[in-house]
Amino acid sequence: MPTRDEPWPDGTPCWVGCQVDDVAAACAFYGGLFGWEIHDGPEEAEGYVMALKDGRPAAGIGPTPEGQDAPAAWTTYFASGDLDAAAADVADGGGTVFVAPFDVLDLGRMAVAADPSGAAFALWQARGHRGAGVVGEHGTLCWSELHTRDYAAAQEFYATVFGWTYREIGDGENLVYAVAANGEGDVVGGVCDDAVIGVPAQVPAHWLTWFAVDDADAAADAA
Predict the structure, then answer these.
(1) Residue 216 belongs to what H/E stretch?
(2) How buried is residue 21: exposed, middle or buried, by Cβ count under 10 Å (0-12/13-18/19+)?
(3) Facing residues of 111 across strands?
(4) In this predicted model, what pLDDT tens digit does every residue of 165-217 receive, in sequence order?
């Protein structure tokens, strides 16, 4: 079981969280699907709950902020040892900082941003909460993937912000896809050119969260 107790390296997907209109329903769905244990947060967490897998943090679920008309979606958090500097790099690289860096209780420091193509993500500087404590097993994060129609610009942006390097694995015609690595050379996710694979133009750029399952067919039936 791949586990971790230390902060994740800079530029690595370190956490995923979902905002939904009905937290209880989402907890029941994902808890049943992935075997998560749901732990309520303190009162000051404002309804945000922590999902554990085998006693280790796996993901978070929280309520959609009041007055915000937004679809339910998973957000990928990227680790940063200096979140304020990373947020500045986002702006300098042509991205948008939607929510400026702020402290989350004594757990860490975060910001919410988007790359130049509009794909939203979060930045996380760990304190009490290191991020995912288990990955790559049933019911836990196993892959993070950017879908964009601005493929080259997206690669340049994340190289600027996180120091990513890329290895192209597509055929260049039917699939334009790169595997990204952080500054330590560890693979952190993928970048996919949606224009090439025929995704409708109205689908916005986004980060896609993948969860590992032991049996994909059984998990699809359960979902």
Answers:
(1) helix 216-222
(2) exposed
(3) 123
(4) 999 999 999 999 999 999 889 999 999 999 999 999 999 999 999 999 999 99
Q: pLDDT tens-digit profile of 67-105?
A: 777 788 999 999 999 999 999 999 999 999 999 999 999
Residue corresponding to tokens 């530029």: 11
- Token pair recorded at residue 24: 């209880």
How far is residue 162 from each of residues 47, 104, 139, 142, measured CA to CA in Å?
31, 22, 27, 20
DSSP strand pairing (108-114 vs 120-126): antiparallel
Query: How many of the other CB atoms lie within 10 Å of CB of 6?
Result: 8
Q: pLDDT tens across 17-42, in order?
A: 999 999 999 999 999 999 999 998 77
Q: For 86, phi and psi rounded to 5 degrees?
A: -65, -40
In the chain, the amino acid numbered 126 is A
d(CA 79, CA 135): 15
Question: How far is residue 77's CA from residue 53's CA, in Å, rounded to a whole number?
Answer: 18
Name residue 52's amino acid.
L
Q: What is the DSSP string of 55-85?
A: TEEEEEEEEPPTT-----EEEEEEE-SSHHH
**Calpha distance 166→82 (Å, rounded):** 23
